[in-house]
Design brief:
There is one protein chain. Helix content is about 75%, strand content about 0%. It has about 325 residues and is mainly α. The longest helix is centred in the middle third of the chain and has 36 residues. The chain is globular.
């Protein structure tokens, strides 16, 4: 297994380089260092000298990919892409274009993001799987049909509607929870209740339909018929066999959620004024702060790759036939 993990980590290096390359290309196709300097300096009458000084302080005066003024390998190494990429691979995120320590900001904003994403993920996972198993138990019944119609209706509505409707109903009309804000500790529970509830509800439609399709695929397998022939009840068959054998595709889907647990929800955090990594990224994009954007994209890619590796390892726990080699 150790050899497999090392090989996967080595495979991840060119992937991260490619992601970083695309990030550089897309960002600088839209924004030039001069534009970034004007935004950060925040003055209408910015002199060329101020712009040049700002770029030199942050390394944006270097060529992006090829330095024609240098010789030999320096043509490739003495560039903005290589210099910044080397820092990222050493997890040195440096300072933002507004002179803030990005590493400290990530540590500070990670907990607000986790306080929203983690309970939403856990509650949604338990709720969706439980409802899906219930529908499989009563498959073909009026309950199954009605729930599928409701699930499609929930999926058809934009997530923004649930956020706005939730804020109007629970905050402005009923005054049950604050409309926005964040506090750490137990006092902050009132601020995360509404975002968590909206996150769980908005994902029920797609979650229940997906898990239901997984369990329905398993319910007609030979091992299920064998279990029924041995006299096991339908509930024991569902929870003892179908659920266990359906864990492999479930784990695969869970991987997609792992980066968002740390990176936060961009829309949710922005609407509810939560100082997490999601709103941090949005603010960086609006202010054209490339240092933060590339750091967040790189961190998200690392977390996603780490999730894939952990998923492969967890496969061996749920299916003894899976061997990592």
């Amino acid at each position: 297994m150790l050899a497999y993990i090392i090989r996967r980590i080595l495979y991840a290096i060119p992937i991260l380089i490619g992601v970083n390359l695309i990030t550089f290309m897309l960002f600088f196709m839209v924004n030039s260092p001069d534009d970034m300097a004007r935004v950060q300096l925040g003055a209408k009458q910015v002199t060329p000298e101020l712009i040049q000084s700002w770029k030199e302080q942050r390394g944006y005066d270097k060529p992006l990919f090829v330095n024609t003024k240098a010789e030999g390998l320096s043509q490739m190494s003495d560039t903005l892409f290589v210099q910044e990429s080397l820092k990222l691979f050493s997890f040195d995120f440096g300072f933002s274009d507004s002179n803030r320590d990005i590493g400290s900001d990530i540590k500070e904003r990670m907990m607000p993001s986790l306080s929203i994403a983690l309970p939403t993920f856990v509650i949604a996972l338990i709720t969706n799987i439980s409802l899906a198993l219930l529908l499989v138990l009563f498959r073909g019944s009026m309950l199954d049909t009605s729930m599928m119609i409701i699930a499609v209706m929930i999926m058809s509505v934009s997530g923004l509607f649930y956020i706005i409707a939730g804020q109007v109903l629970f905050s402005k009309i009923w005054h049950w929870v604050p409309i926005s804000g964040y506090e750490s500790g137990w006092d902050g529970i009132k601020f995360i209740l509404l975002p968590v509830m909206i996150g769980v509800f908005s994902g029920i439609g797609s979650g229940v339909r997906w898990y239901r399709s997984i369990f329905l695929e398993q319910i007609n397998q030979d091992y299920v018929r064998t279990a029924r022939a041995k006299g096991l009840s339908e509930i024991k068959v569902l929870f003892g066999h179908v659920l266990r054998n359906g864990m492999l595709p479930i784990l695969t889907g869970v991987v997609v959620i792992i980066p968002s647990l740390f990176m936060g929800s961009l829309i949710m955090e922005s609407f509810f004024g939560i100082p997490g990594l999601g709103s941090y990224t949005i603010d960086a994009i609006n202010s054209q702060d490339f240092a933060i954007v590339k750091a967040m994209v790189f961190l998200g890619s690392v977390l996603y790759i780490l999730g894939l590796i952990l998923t492969d390892i967890s496969y061996t726990l749920f299916d003894p036939r899976v061997k990592l080699s």
